[in-house]
């Protein structure tokens, strides 16, 4: 921990008979500043990668170095990198709003099982393309929440599970109540997460396998949004995993 000590002399008539000591715990403040610096550096790096690609492809086309039949392919690459850039910026905005508790929507009574079912239907096509069995089960659980945030939380968890589960596997979503608390559990037969990484996967831009993450099209902010979304609703998020 980090502390700051301020000492002021105390006394009458110019003499010093003692001192007033003020001890302040600056740990959280310093950690917050460090987090902001790291976040800014990471954002700059993450934005630079797609922008460099877009600039490179555009320069080649402008220089007339691309055959007419290849222009469509190059345009497609520029489009993909731009889409990645937009997704990254959108995720940064979502995180900022959650951090500042500036989500405009009002809380309402929500059926978590219904939200989970809605998310599963959205991702059925992605699961089918990898021959992944995607299911949802559980009981009706009603909580007070913001629909857009909870949908985002469930979507990111299920989407991640599909991305990191090999073809022919399964992803199961379960909703219920445990110890008087509502829960949403997403289990998969994916590649797993080594123990040394599990304490970091909810950090912004943290990737266990950077090459795989980039190939899958992730922004590196999905699980950070999950954590902030859970905290916004007074909840928490945990992971249990092992390689394989």
Write up this protein.
This protein is α+β, with helices and mostly antiparallel strands. Helix content is 50%, strand content 19%. It has helices at residues 27-62, 71-99, 112-129, 147-163, 195-198, 210-216, 222-232, and strands spanning 3-10, 18-25, 108-111, 133-138, 142-145, 170-178, 181-188. A hairpin with a 7-residue loop joins β1 and β2 (18-25). α2 (71-99) packs parallel to α7 (222-232), α3 runs parallel beside α4 (147-163) and α4 runs antiparallel to α7.
Q: What is the strand content?
A: 15-25%
Structural class given helices, strands, pairing?
A: alpha+beta
Q: Provide the gyration radius in Å.
A: 24 Å
Please summarize the sheet with the most strands: 3 strands, mixed
Number of strands: 7
The dominant shape is extended
Low-confidence stretches: none
Strand order, sheet with most strands: 4-6-7
**What is the overall pLDDT average?**
88
Query: Termini distance?
Result: 37 Å
The total of helices stands at 7
* Helical coverage, percent range: 40-55%
Instruction: Give helix and strand order, one letter per element, not per position.
Output: EEHHEHEEHEEHHH
